Amino acid sequence: MKILVPDVPFDLDFPSRLPDGGASFGPGGTDTVVAYAMNEPVPEEHTDADVLVTWSSPPKVVADAARRLTRLRWVQTLSAGPDVALKAGFGPDVVICSGQSLHDDTVAEHALALILATVRRIDVSLAAQREHRWAKEITFAQAEPATEQEYTLDGARVTVWGFGSIALRLAPLLTALGAQVTGVASRAGERAGYPVVGADELEAQLARTDLLVSLLPALPATRHILDARLLALLPPAARFVNVGRGATVDEAALEDALRSGRLGGAALDVMETEPLPEDSPLWDVPNLILTPHVAGGRPRRAAAFLADQLTRWRAGETPRNLAR
């Protein structure tokens, strides 16, 4: 079995690495592991691969692989969301798995950083710093009884939309700071002690939300799901943080909500078009913090994850994180 892995700047080593760059894996040593340049089309001599591991390859490169790798049986993406692989055009018999769990720690950390930055108005302080101005208005607003609650997570009603493994890592961090966390997912119930509401209760939940955190994947059903109508349901002082996928947000509606003051603030690590174009209006929207899709950074413990996935595959078991 030939397995293609990307030439990434982190550990994807396999057992029994060979000097020529190949490797033998598993009982009998019948698997060959070949590294490929993740930003370039797969070389012709490797289009006979059975397994393709992807990480951060441009969509056009993944689509090219879907067209040319006709023997492919399995695509394992190291991204938390498999949206690029799902849209690439792989045949219906090709198994696609995501890298869910590989980014839980770092995405949760970055989400918390963005949450605290927008709640504590770090963007206002940084802007004032560049102007050599002492932003005393932040102090006054925190001391004012009518607005003091807007500057703290203690007692804040936080809704996490997309309550999967990342949310389960993030929620206790928010709880430790005094937030009241509620999840939104396809199925209502309770997860790790946190109440989770279904889609039928989303609108009512948004109306009682101080901070909305999106961890939604990019799927046809989630495209622009956070639109003007749902944004209008949030209280005017509410804040929004997106570390899921940019395509889930109607950015024009978000811009309008921020400029008009119908939304208190927002922080985005993901945008619909990335890199964000220089002429995008998002750069200059007030009360908006932007980071360049860095929440995940890199998959953690990817080598052990791949080894386990390959072991399951060779044993005829279903790999984890099956996307289709």
From TrEMBL:
One of the Pfam families matching this protein, by short name: 2-Hacid_dh_C
Single GO term (MF): NAD binding
Name used for this protein in its record: Phosphoglycerate dehydrogenase
Record key words, sorted: NAD, Oxidoreductase
D-isomer specific 2-hydroxyacid dehydrogenase NAD-binding domain residues: 112-295
Source superkingdom: Bacteria
The UniProt record lists the keyword Phosphoprotein: no
SUPFAM superfamilies on file: Formate/glycerate dehydrogenase catalytic domain-like (SSF52283), NAD(P)-binding Rossmann-fold domains (SSF51735)
Signal peptide from the UniProt entry: none
Matching PANTHER family: 2-HACID_DH_C DOMAIN-CONTAINING PROTEIN, D-ISOMER SPECIFIC 2-HYDROXYACID DEHYDROGENASE NAD-BINDING DOMAIN-CONTAINING PROTEIN
Organism of this sequence: Promicromonospora thailandica
